[in-house]
Amino acid sequence: MLKRRTRDFHQLSPVANALFHVIAASLAIIAVFPFLFVLIISFTDENTLARNGYRLIPEKWSVDAYHYIFQTGDSLLRSYGVTLFVTIVGTLISLCIITLYAYAISRKSFKYRGFFSFIAFFTMLFNGGLVPTYIVVTQLLDMKDSIWALIMPMAVNAFYIMIMRTFFSTMVPDAIIESGRIDGAGEFQTFIRLVLPLSLPGIATIALFSTLGYWNDWFNALLYIDNPDLVPLQSMLMRIENSMQFILQNSNNASLSSGILQNMPQDTSRMAMVVLATGPIILAYPFFQRYFVQGLTIGAVKE
């Protein structure tokens, strides 16, 4: 009788179920609509946009914005390759360092737990500043004009370490660690075989943050990269935008052809840059969502 009442209590009525579906669908549309609207504007003719303004269904479609951006030739594709490499390799390196560091300081048996926790926490409050960081990266580590200058400065984040330390401390039972020790597993083997499968939600969260950080990074390229073959996507799009601004600001210059100014898409090209910059990273969300669900459905301690 008690089980039946509990089942009836948790079961929603058809009206409430439909209402929650409508609310969820509305929130999903609100979240997706801005990107879809930007996508529509990027395929809108520039003259039509200037005449009619922003519309959900434009009067005339056009791919001039993308044609203008891809006039850079192989540079844009090369920038995509650089960004993909930096994002994938950087995320893997960041996950390895952060999870190992966080797991070590989450174990009460670790002798220097407090010392290394303080080191990580201290960097959240104070840092060496831009000039010392630049000197270390360019002179001490000699990573100027190197692909590693886009990876290593962002490989460790103290805030992510604290998140993973809290996750390991609260979500990984000590019984799991003890069972590994009883079976004769070492620390590293216990971490790989027992701790990581239980930590997929936390790892997926940190991986998503790291992926977004690497994908959207342009500042490190501005500081350390002069080689055009190593310019990432965000920095390349910024250079295209700066070139457009320069042409527009010097439109009175006689050396600039009026035809270039008339044929150059302005608003639509900016929207196209947003699509090119954010479109591929959207594909990462379903991948990480899969591991969120998988990690939440794994059981550890059975009563």
TrEMBL record:
A Pfam family matched in the record: BPD_transp_1
Q: What processes does the entry annotate via GO biological process terms?
A: transmembrane transport
Q: Where does the record place the ABC transmembrane type-1 domain?
A: 80-293
Q: Where in the cell is it found?
A: Cell membrane
Q: Which UniProt keywords apply?
A: Cell membrane, Membrane, Transmembrane, Transmembrane helix, Transport
* Family annotation (SUPFAM superfamilies): MetI-like (SSF161098)
Q: Out of the domains of life, which is the source? A: Bacteria
GO cellular component assignments: plasma membrane
- Membrane spanning stretches: 20-43, 80-103, 115-135, 147-170, 191-215, 271-288
Q: Does Glycosyltransferase appear among the keywords?
A: no
Q: How does it sit in the membrane?
A: Multi-pass membrane protein
Q: Is Repeat tagged as a keyword?
A: no
Q: Which family does it belong to?
A: Belongs to the binding-protein-dependent transport system permease family.
> What protein is this chain from?
Carbohydrate ABC transporter permease
